[in-house]
Amino acid sequence: MVRAVVCRALGAPETLRLEEFPSRAVKPGEVRVAIRAAGLNFPDVLMAAGEYQLKPELPFTPGMEAAGDVTEVGAEASGVSVGDKVIVKMRHGAFTDEAVVTPTQLTPMPSTFDYAEAATYLAGHGTAYHALIDRGRVMPGEVLLVHGAGGGVGLAAVEIGKMLGATVIATASSDEKLAIAKSRGADHLVRYDREPFRDAVKRITDGRGADVVFDPVGGEVFENSMRCIAWGARLLVIGFTGGIGSAKTNLLLIKGASVLGVRAGEAVRKNPALGEVRLKALLQWAEEGKLRPNISHRLPLQDYAKAMRLLIDRKAIGRVALVME
């Protein structure tokens, strides 16, 4: 029997249930993967609550990414073999012991990663890559302001921004989160509750402001970001964990600034070539030891609600993984 977290009614994490199902047969062109770890992302929480742009038909299993071992390869499925260690990319369905997918959903695991690291890599770092490289076009020497730098995508943005040669200002809600951001390359650290970040950015940049803002928080954070930007700044809208902000068009006009929406997955669905370049770079950087997810919590599958609460309560530093026993 295969265990899976099932959403039968939209709501809080506690409304989900861990259920058991028989393994289903592998059809031609499909592959069976024994899932060893699954990564949690904030869209998983939103999807289960019915608040995400993708609204799967009920019932469904949350989870966008996982890692494990190929245990069966169906007829007509090419490019994969039994025993391969793989990352599994899904729109939902990862919170389970076993997944039947197509080879196009699989990516070889970096040899430098364990299963939990592999299962928490591509969504967060892929979003940061798309934001900073495809959308923000960060250049060496620019000032990058990263909000929510203790979170999964924020911490990934700190790492990649530093790799790109930017001066990285990291903001977060605790010293512990900022310490991790510093270890991943942040040049300047700002705690929200100790100094208004807009004042800190102006102080750090001698009044010039940030060239690029990476914002997964939204709300007032987005609105105040418009008041500490440089000429020609790019504000990258990653998410809205803190609410949906309003753009002051006069501030954008005065600074010649741009607001850019970031949807890494949708961008690849619209233009698959973007995904190929991104994936190649991310896997290479992982093999070279330049990038690695920071996993603050590894919990068993049955603790899925507790794991999702860590994201809601912003207690995670970097990533949270469900590990199959």
TrEMBL record:
Source organism of this protein record: Bradyrhizobium japonicum
SMART domains the UniProt entry points to: PKS_ER
Protein's name according to its UniProt entry: NADPH:quinone oxidoreductase
Enoyl reductase (ER) domain boundaries: 11-322
Residues in the signal sequence: none
One Pfam family from the record: ADH_zinc_N
UniProt lineage: Bacteria, Pseudomonadati, Pseudomonadota, Alphaproteobacteria, Hyphomicrobiales
One example GO MF annotation: oxidoreductase activity
CDD domains to which the protein is assigned, alphabetical: QOR1
Database matches in SUPFAM superfamilies: GroES-like, NAD(P)-binding Rossmann-fold domains
